[in-house]
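Fig. S4 source data, part A: sequence.
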Amino acid sequence: MQKALVIGASGGMGYALVNELVSRNIQVKAFARNEKKLVALFRHHKNVDIISGDVFNEQDMMRASNGVNVIFHAISFPYLEWEKLHMRCLDMVINIAERRGAKIALVDNIYAYGRQSINPVKEQARKEPQTKKGHIRLTMENKLKNSKVPSLIVHFPDLYGPNAENTILYETLKNVAQDKKANFVGNMQVKREFLYTVDGAMAMVELALRDDTYNQNWNVPAVHPITGEELVGVLREITGYKKGVRTVSKGMIRLIGLFSPSMKEVVEILYLTEEPVILSGEKFEKEIGALPCTSYRVGLEETIAWMNKRTLKNI
């Protein structure tokens, strides 16, 4: 891979992917709609071309994809727009990749796995999603696999990290960093996975650099599952945070959803906070090597430091 296009480069995983690609001396085109945010994130980076545009505009996508070997699809949309936009976006990416002779590396989550009776979950696990969002992600997966484009699909659990603001953990981290009363979504005694985006990007780029990894699914787990109580304990050690942390239950979000359509969309995936899907990294470790495994302490320290640095810049 000599040149890569990252669409959704202004998001959490997109940001991490650009940084990881650059660290490997790969020329990167960072594509997103918001030029101001792209400039703020990447203006000091060498080997990064900033390209603002509309992923649904064919001319913008052809301009952005000129000369690239791999297109990293790191775009997601607000839950209310998933049904309308995700397939349209994927259709465009497949079309552009076919015309450019490029490969596709898709950032995916765990929704398509649905409820699983056995953890950790391997790539060959049966996918029978019970939610609308899970069906959308599985439809995307099948669409990509049935195309003529070489592709790899990487499943990640919930994410956290620098610039990862559209995550279930972000509001907790933001309020802790600002020393405000914080909320934690889900049962704080249940062990779940939170993957540091830097680790996820490192694993995904490693996969994308190889020829024998395409036309497959890959699971990339977090360093280990952790309870909300354990995670908050780490945050207290790092920051000295002393305020209480309120648990946000499914019932509370369902009640808020009566007045907020966007919160109503969150309810259907909250089963994952009670019945987590824990990913197996066995395939990656057997075929590629050791998974990146930043400790929660280090990952959270770096994330909080990034948040504080950004806050200072905005003052």
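Fig. S4 source data, part B ends here. The first helix runs from residue 12 to 23.
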